Amino acid sequence: MTELGGATGRGDTSARDAAGGAVGDADTAKLRRALPDALRAAGVRGEAAFDVTARALTTMDASNYRRVPLGVVAPRDADDVAAVLSVCREHGVPVVARGGGTSIAGQATGTGVVLDFTRHMNRLVSLDPEARTAVVQPGLVLDRLQEAAAPHHLRFGPDPSTHSRCTLGGMIGNNSCGSHSVAWGTTADSVRELSVLDGRGHALRPGQGWSGAPDGLRPLVERELARLRTGFPDLPRRISGYALDALLPENGADVARSFCGSEGTLGVLTEAVVRLVEAPSARALAVLAYADESAAAEAAPGLLPHGPLTVEGMAADLVPPGAVGLPAGGAWLFVEAGGDTAAEARAHAGALVRAAEADGALVDSLVVTDAAGQRALWRIREDASGTATRMPDGSEAWPGWEDCAVPPARLGAYLRDFRGLLRAHDLRGTPYGHFGDGCIHVRIDFDLLTPTGIARFRRFSEELAELVTSHGGSLSGEHGDGQARAELLPTMYGTAMVRLFEQVKGVWDPDDLLNPGMLVRPAPLDSNLRFAVLPRTPVPVEFAYPDDGGDFSAAVRRCVGVAKCRTTEVSPASGAVMCPSFRATGEEEHSTRGRARLLHEMLAGEVITDGWRSTEVRDALDLCLSCKGCRSDCPVGVDMATYKAEFLHHHYTGRRRPAAHYAMGWLPLWLRLVARTRTAGLANFLAGVRPLASLAKRLGGIAGERELPRLARVPFTRWYERSLKERAKREESAAVAEVKAVAEAEEGAGIDGDSERVGDVEGVGDSEGEGALADLGEDGDGGDGGDGGDDRDGGDDRDDEDDRDDEDDEGDDDGGEGDDDGDGETYEAPTTVLLWTDTFTEYLSPSVGQAALRVLEAAGLHVIVPPTLWMKRKPAWARRAEAGEEVALTQLRLTRALFAMRQGRVCCGLTYISTGQLDRARAVLRRTLDILDVFLNPVPQRPPAEDPDLAPPPLPVVVLEPSCAATLRTDLPELLPDDPRAHRLAASVLTFAEALERHAPHWTPPAVDRPVVGQTHCHQHAVLGDAPDRRLRAAAGLTGDLSGGCCGLAGNFGFEKGHYDVSVACAEDQLLPAVRQAADDALVLADGFSCRTQLEQLAGRRGAHLAEVLAEGLERAEGVVREEPSDEPSR
C-alpha cells in the first residue's frame, strides 16, 4: 500500500516557541494523557477530546497556516472556561478560543487546548427589542441572531460573507465587518458590554469606562496618551493591532471596544451585549457596471453621501461561468438602498444610479427590487471568497493579503499600485471587496509549496506592507492580523507602538497563555504553512482528478476552510444541498470541511499516521451521503463523494469489506440474477416474512428499520421486447389487411395482381424493424448489469418457445420507420435517442421507463434501448460489413462488440463506485463501452453514402435516474480517462427533460395543471442542472418549486446499518416538511428511486417521476384507461 506523509521542516510546530507555545514532542503524549483527567477533576462538564480525530479537525482554519493542538474542549458555560484556563495554566498549555473556524489569518489555530464554543455556548440569551440589544454567547451563529431579530425589524449590523456559519465570538475577536459596514460599521461599533476571563481566569465585565478593565491597564494608557493620539491612522477599516485609541479619554475609555479585534490574545469571551440596528422595511439593489475595478473603486467614494447600505465591488474574473443577471461590464459595484416602502427603496436606488451616471465612468446599470433576484446576485458576491481561490485558468490562489484597507478616496490609486506590485513579482490576483470602505480582498497565486515560492511570498508581503502604509492604510481591514500579518505590524505602527501592544498583552495575560504567537511576539509569516506537510509528489489514485492535475493532494487542498458546508439552515428557495450530514449531526467531523481536513492530515501523516487504513477518516466518511452537493455548492468545488470512493477503494483493498458493500454494492448482479431465474415474486414473498427479512437484513448489513423494496416481476427490458413484438404483429396484420384490400380492389377493377407488391410486405413484423438496436438480442433479464459475469447460455431467459419461433422468423432488414428502399431505416440523429435502462428503472420501477418511452415517442422521437446479450442474428449493417460493402467497420470491432454483449449489459457502475469498489466499477464501465463501441466510434461514411445504417453516429443517451446520469457524466471519464469512448458517452448523456428540450423543441407537453411538491435530486442539482426540468414543468402547468437538500436515502446510504437516524434527519431537513405542508391536490415529484423510496417509507406518499406525470397527462388527453402491466409473459 502506498505510504503517505509529506516533508517536514518549517511547517512543523511541536516545540514551545514564538510560533505558538506548544510543549516539546517528548512531553506531548504525556500531556494528552494527563489533561483529560485533570479537566474532569477540575469539574469541567463539557466534552474534552484529545483523540486523533478531534486534533486533526482543528489543525487549520481558513488560512494558510496549520498548528496541531493537544486537544479540544467544548465548555458548557463560563465556569467550564475558567476551569480549563486554570488547568492549562497549571500545565503550561496555551489556550485558543475558536468559533466557526473561518479566520483567514491563522488566529483560530493553536498548539495547546482549543475551546470550541459552537457545541454548547451557542445560545441567544435574550433579545430586548425596546433597548435594541441582545445578549449572546460566543458560539452563536450570526444568522441565528438575525433570524431572532428580524420579526422586530431589527438586525445586527455587521454581516461578513460567512454569516451563515461565523459566530459572534469570532466576529468580536476579529472585529469583523461585512458588506453593510458603510451603513452600520464594524463589530466594535455594535458592542456594548462583554463578559471576559483574562489569562489568570479573572472574570471581567468591560464596557465603556474603566470599571471592567484589568488592573494595570489604565495607568499604562495614561502614560502613553500622546502616542495613542497620534499613532493610529484614521480610516473606517483599521483592524490591525490593538484598538488602544478607544481607551483615550475623549473616546470614553471604551474597554469593550478596545477588546474587539484582539484575536483571543487578551481574554476569553463568554458573553456579550450587542447593539441592534433598525432594518429597512424594503430594499433595492443597484448593480453598477464599470470598465474595470479601478474605475469602480474611484467611483465608490462619490456614492457615500447618498446613504447607501452597501458599496461592494468585484471584477469579472470572479463571476462563475453561467452566472446571469449582471449588467455588461468588467467590474461592478453592488449598491444596496433601503426604504420604508418598496417604492421608497426603488427611488433611493434610482438616485444612486443617477449619482453614478454623473461621475461619467458608469458603463451600465441595473436595479433589482425582487428579493429572489437580489439574493441571486448577492450569492455571486458572497461566494467570491471561495471563487477567488482559483485563478481563471484553474491554478490555485491563496489568502495572506486578504483584506488590506486604505482610505476610500485613495482606493483607485492603491489598486493601480497594487497591480503594479503583482506584475513586478510575476503574481496574479483578483481584487474584490468593500470598496465603499476602501477594503480590498484578494487571493494571490503564491507558490507556497517550494522554498523559492515561499521566499517570493515573504518578499511580496514585506513590499505590500510598505505600499499599504504609504497610502495611509491598514494591513488588515477585516480579518485581523493573526500570523499572516502580525510580523509586519512594525511597518504600519513602528516599533514603539508594537512594544506598547506587548505591554498591553502582559496586563491582560501575564503568562502568555492565550493564543500565543498572534499579534505580539508573532510567528514568522512564512512558518507553519499548512502545505509543508503534504506529499511532494502525487500519490497513486484511481480517479483522474483532471481539474487538479491528477494530484489527490491538490484535490484535498481545494478546501480552504470557508466552511459554507457548516451552514445549519438552508432556505428551500436556494435549492442548496451541502452538507446534509452536518445539518443532521452538527458535528465538524461530518461536514465537507471536516472530512477534507482529515484527508489532509492523512496525507500529512503526522496526526493520522496509518494512511489509507485510517479508521478516523473511514468513520468521518461513513456518514457522507455521496450526494455531491459540495461539488456544486462549495465555492471551490470540493467533491467529497469522489474522495470517499477513492478512500474506500484503498482502505479495503485486500481486506474484507462490510456486508453492505456486497449486498448493496453488487445490487445490479443480485437483481439480474433474480430476473434471470424469474424469482421476483418469490423474493417479494420472502421479504414479507418478517423473520426471514430480518435475517436477510442482518446478513446484508441493512438497517433493521428499513423495508426491502419490492422487485418488479416484469423488468422493463422484458416488457419492452414484448411491446416490440406485439407492435410488430399489429403492424403486420394492418399491412396484410391493407394489401388484401388493394388486391381485392384491383381484382374488382380487372387489374392483374402484382406479385412484387405482395413481396413488399415481406419483413413486416420483423422485430428488427422496430429500431436500430432491437435486433441486437433478446434479453429476458434486463437491468443495469452485474460485474461482468459470462452469460454463455446465449439467452436462456426467453419468454417462451413461441417468442423464440417469432425471432427465428425475423427478416434480414434492419429498418424501421422511414424505410426508403426496403433495406433499412433512414437514421436521423436528432430524432433517435437511446433510452438507458438503469438498475432501478429496470428491476424496481419499470413504470418509469414505460412512461418515458410513451412520452418520448409522443414527442416524435425514435426510442431504442441498449443491446444486451449475444445476438442470435447480426444486424444488417454488420452483415453488410462482413459482405465487404463497408470494409471500414472492421471485424475486430464487430467481434469485440459481440463478445461484450455476451458478458452482460450496460451499467453505469454507480453502486460499485459509491462503495469504493473501483476496480470492479472500471471493469463494468469498460464492458459497457465495448457493448456500445460501434455507436461511440462511428465509422466515417464513405460511398455508398445512401446507406446510412452502415455507420450509425453516436446517439443521445437519455438517462432517467439522475444518480446514474451523474455517474456517466462525471465518474465514467474520470475512471477511464484514456478511453475516448468514455468521454463521448459522457457528452451524450441527457436527462429526460434535456432530451425533450434539445431534440423535440416544438413538442407541447400535456396540460397537467397541478401544483407540485418534492425535491430536486441532489445529483441533478450538483452535476446535471434542473433548468430544463423547470421549463418542462412550467410548460405542463406544474406549478411550485421543488425543495433543495438531500432526501437522506442516497442509494445504499440510507439502507446501511447505522445510518437510519441520520437518513431520517436529512429527510426532515427539507423534503418531509415540504410534503406535509403541500396542498391536498399536489403531485409529489421525485425523479430518483431513492427519493421515491424515502417518501414512501417515511411519509407514506408515492412520488412520481416527471415522465410518469406527463405520460398520465397524455393518457388523460387521449382518453386512455391505464392498465397495470401484466406479470405473466406475453404469448
Structural commentary:
The chain has 1131 residues and is of the alpha/beta class. Among the domains are: 124-278, Uridine Diphospho-n-acetylenolpyruvylglucosamine Reductase, domain 3, CATH 3.30.465; 280-382, Alpha-Beta Plaits; 716-999, no CATH class; 1010-1118. It is built from 47 helices and 25 strands. A hairpin with a 4-residue loop joins strand 17 and strand 18. It is globular, with a radius of gyration of 34 Å.
Question: Could you give the topology of this structure?
Answer:
Blueprint: H1 25-41, E1 47-49, H2 52-57, E2 71-74, H3 78-91, E3 95-98, E4 113-116, E5 124-128, E6 133-136, H4 142-149, E7 154-155, H5 168-174, H6 181-184, E8 191-198, E9 203-204, H7 217-223, H8 225-230, H9 255-259, E10 267-275, E11 277-278, E12 282-290, H10 293-299, E13 310-315, E14 331-339, H11 342-359, E15 364-368, H12 371-382, H13 384-387, E16 404-405, H14 411-424, E17 432-434, E18 439-441, H15 451-470, H16 482-485, H17 489-493, H18 495-508, H19 552-557, H20 580-585, H21 592-604, H22 615-622, H23 629-633, H24 640-652, H25 659-663, H26 667-677, H27 680-687, H28 690-700, H29 716-748, H30 755-759, H31 801-808, E19 832-836, H32 839-844, H33 846-858, E20 862-864, H34 876-882, H35 891-903, H36 910-914, H37 918-931, H38 933-936, E21 957-959, H39 962-975, H40 980-988, E22 989-990, H41 992-999, E23 1010-1014, H42 1018-1024, H43 1027-1035, E24 1038-1039, H44 1060-1069, H45 1071-1076, E25 1083-1085, H46 1089-1099, H47 1106-1118
Short characterization:
By secondary structure, the chain is α/β, with parallel strands linked by helices.
